[in-house]
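Try this one yourself first.
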């Protein structure tokens, strides 16, 4: 089976391949004696494959099934894992492995970042979104009742194993949601991604085809390039947050019944409309957002939630500075910039544009 390895700075490898489980012990490294396997429920095939590969390498595997999806990202679940690590005597040379979608890898990374002030984590994403985004780059975290990802740490993984064959069981809606982050990478940095999706949207959703593989490789390359320059989001990394200010607000207002990728899809249309309202982006590029997102089945409008509730959620965005709301907007494709303190009228007009079905 073929492997592509994307190196993130001088730090770690993202291995992209098929049936690539034999690579896992190498990513975990030789110093570990124990592995905490933090895994999403209902992934019997990958969980068995991970366990077999690690045990064959002489590692003791402590199994930790966690609640599914966003329900994993809570302080209670994290506390349960800290307790398990304590009871099983995990030391600083032992390793956490996160297996599942972005919610599971965010939790696993956060627990690894905080246990003994930091033990290694190896991420094994099994969703498209996890492979191209969540498992790479070291943002880890959990939610609080006040908002999304409000508690967390920057803790880069020791390695990432993206086994494309795991996508064969992923529900189509979750695959589509993952494409939102891929398309985001197209708008902020790599226009070839947009061309590939536009040329054949169904090929972009074929998990056994070459187009999806190229999209994964390109999106991982965008993320690796950005995070290797600015791990702690002092500036450049903010571009990876394109579409997330409004997207996270939808997720919160809708009590996480929307998939992250779906909310980010609408969030990108919102911020494109905001860029147009502020006079920095051409309407043609705004419509290109709608067309490419819609072509793969992603939502481009949202008419729920009160404006006040969305605005309150947006104010908690990490890009805010004091009372100043800040957005990543585009000047054109692959030319992101910042919009600081847009007017109330601009914010509202972008909301009205997103509410309307166009
Ligand atoms: N840390 C980061 O940089 C970063 C980046 C993007 C997103 N995120 C976070 O990632 C989360 C979203 O991740 P997601 O879209 O992967 O959702 P998810 O983790 O909720 O997974 C979606 C669903 O797919 C199931 N699943 C996972 N793999 C499967 C497989 N191979 N076959 C069948 N079912 C499978 C899961 O159990 C879940 O029900 C959000 O919490 C978001 O905030 C983090
Ligand atoms: O890696 C990043 O940086 C990102 O912003 C990627 C986003 O896709 C991701 O959803 C991230 O978790 C959002 O982070 P937050 O800092 O806005 O909570
Ligand atoms: Zn995201």
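Now uncover the answer:
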């Amino acid at each position: 089976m073929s492997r592509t390895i994307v190196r993130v700075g001088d730090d770690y490898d993202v291995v992209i391949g098929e049936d690539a489980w034999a690579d896992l012990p190498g990513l975990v490294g030789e110093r570990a004696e124990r592995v905490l396997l933090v895994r999403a429920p209902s992934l019997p095939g990958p969980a068995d494959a991970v366990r077999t590969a690690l045990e064959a390498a002489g590692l003791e595997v402590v199994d930790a099934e966690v609640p599914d999806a966003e329900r994993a990202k809570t302080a209670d679940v994290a506390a349960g894992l800290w307790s398990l690590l304590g009871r099983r005597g995990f030391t600083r040379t032992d390793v956490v492995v996160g297996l599942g979608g972005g919610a599971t890898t965010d939790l696993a990374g956060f627990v690894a970042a905080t246990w003994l002030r930091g033990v290694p984590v190896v991420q094994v994403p099994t969703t498209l979104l996890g492979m191209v985004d969540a498992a790479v780059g070291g943002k880890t975290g959990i939610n609080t009742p006040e908002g999304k990802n409000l508690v967390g740490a920057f803790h880069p993984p020791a390695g990432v194993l993206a086994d494309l064959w795991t996508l064969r069981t992923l529900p189509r809606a979750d695959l589509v949601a993952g494409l939102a982050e891929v398309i985001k990478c197209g708008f902020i940095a790599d226009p070839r991604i947009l061309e590939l999706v536009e040329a054949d949207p169904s090929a972009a959703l074929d998990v056994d085809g070459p187009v999806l593989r190229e999209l994964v490789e390109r999106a991982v390359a965008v993320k690796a390039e950005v995070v290797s320059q600015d791990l702690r989001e002092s500036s450049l990394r903010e571009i990876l947050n394109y579409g997330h200010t409004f997207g996270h607000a939808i997720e919160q207002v809708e009590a996480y019944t929307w998939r992250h990728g779906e909310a980010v899809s609408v969030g990108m249309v919102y911020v494109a409309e905001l860029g147009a309202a502020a006079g920095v982006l051409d309407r043609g590029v705004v419509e290109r957002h709608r067309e490419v997102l819609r072509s793969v089945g992603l939502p481009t409008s949202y008419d729920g939630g009160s404006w006040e509730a969305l605005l309150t959620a947006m104010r908690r965005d990490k890009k805010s500075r004091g009372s100043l709301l800040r957005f990543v907007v585009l000047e054109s494709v692959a030319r992101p910039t910042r919009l600081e303190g847009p007017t109330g009228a601009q914010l509202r007009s972008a909301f009205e544009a997103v509410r309307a079905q166009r």
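Discussion: The pocket of nicotinamide-adenine-dinucleotide (ligand 1) is lined by residues 40, 42-43, 68-70, 73, 100-104, 106, 126-127, 129-130, 133-134, 137, 139, 149, 166, 169-170, 174, 177, 181, 259-261 (CB under 6 Å). The chain is about 45% helix and 20% strand.
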